[in-house]
């Protein structure tokens, strides 16, 4: 536990502008009011600094706290809470609520994100239809938990009245749903099928810190289209990287 607030020189974040995991850490730092320096990295061409601090995966984001590396976005979020427990907390105080936030954060990375990625990499036809259906099945699970008897029933955010860890984890990936809907000409978040999730996402996106963190949708769409072109074997800018 660090009793003193950090200076901008204490925390350095290595990340990528279009990477949702980088956005998680950026958003968490802003929510907790922690100053930091930022270094833009190419996820396809890890710099010596990234490889030095994350030799196992060579992936982003990497948070350096006084030169010591903290890796994996969800681990970083919990580290921030444990190191600076005063003020805004991302994890709830109740152990059962903390366990639920951690479980559904794992679900977001282990189930939801891969299903969304499958839509993006799919071809028109039955394969894409099946991929979209898998996203819907995963969203149904979240919708259920937000309703009667669910772990997050009656809450404005998953974290309660304020954005918490699960909001950050889910929200910093869910904006890609709108991007992929346009890029792939599919419907992933139907407000009639998923009213609670849809309302939560709109509320999340309106928060000042979120608007300061997430790039404009048109820029993300341009990026997604370039990545899609590269995946299909066309030419793409050398600076385009797949998350």
TrEMBL record:
GST C-terminal domain location: 94-227
Gene Ontology CC: one annotated term: cytosol
Catalytic activity, reaction form: RX + glutathione = an S-substituted glutathione + a halide anion + H(+)
EC class: transferase
Subcellular location: Cytoplasm, Cytosol
An MF annotation (GO) of this entry: glutathione transferase activity
Entry EC no(s): 2.5.1.18
Highest taxon of the lineage: Eukaryota
GO biological process terms on file: glutathione metabolic process; toxin catabolic process
Pfam families hit by this protein: GST_C_2, GST_N_2
Residues of the GST N-terminal domain: 9-88
PROSITE patterns reported in the protein's UniProt record: GST_CTER, GST_NTER
Record's keyword annotation contains Cytoplasm: yes
Keywords: Cytoplasm, Transferase
The family this protein is said to belong to: Belongs to the GST superfamily.
Family matches, as PANTHER family: GLUTATHIONE S-TRANSFERASE, GST, SUPERFAMILY, GST DOMAIN CONTAINING, GLUTATHIONE TRANSFERASE
Function recorded in the entry: Is involved in the conjugation of reduced glutathione to a wide number of exogenous and endogenous hydrophobic electrophiles.
Protein name: Glutathione S-transferase
């Amino acid at each position: 536990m660090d009793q003193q607030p950090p200076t901008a020189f204490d925390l350095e974040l290595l990340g990528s502008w279009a990477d949702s995991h980088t956005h998680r850490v950026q958003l968490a730092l802003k929510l907790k009011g922690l100053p930091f320096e930022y270094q833009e990295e190419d996820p396809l061409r890890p710099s010596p600094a990234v490889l030095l601090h994350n030799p196992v995966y060579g992936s982003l984001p990497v948070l350096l706290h006084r030169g010591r590396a903290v890796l994996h976005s969800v681990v970083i979020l919990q580290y921030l809470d444990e190191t600076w427990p005063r003020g805004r907390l991302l994890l709830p105080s109740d152990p059962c609520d903390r366990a639920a936030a951690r479980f559904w954060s794992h679900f977001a990375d282990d189930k939801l994100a891969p299903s969304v990625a499958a839509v993006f990499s799919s071809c028109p036809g039955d394969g894409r239809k099946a991929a979209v259906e898998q996203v819907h099945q995963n969203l149904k699970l979240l919708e259920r938990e937000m309703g009667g008897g669910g772990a997050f029933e009656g809450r404005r955010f998953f974290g309660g009245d304020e954005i918490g860890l699960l909001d950050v984890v889910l929200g910093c990936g869910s904006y890609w749903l709108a991007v992929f809907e346009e890029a792939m000409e599919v419907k992933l978040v139907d407000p009639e099928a998923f009213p609670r999730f849809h309302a939560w996402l709109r509320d999340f996106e309106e928060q000042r810190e979120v608007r300061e963190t997430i790039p404009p949708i048109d820029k993300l769409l341009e990026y997604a289209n370039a990545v899609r072109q590269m995946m299909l074997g066309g030419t793409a800018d050398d600076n385009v990287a797949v998350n």
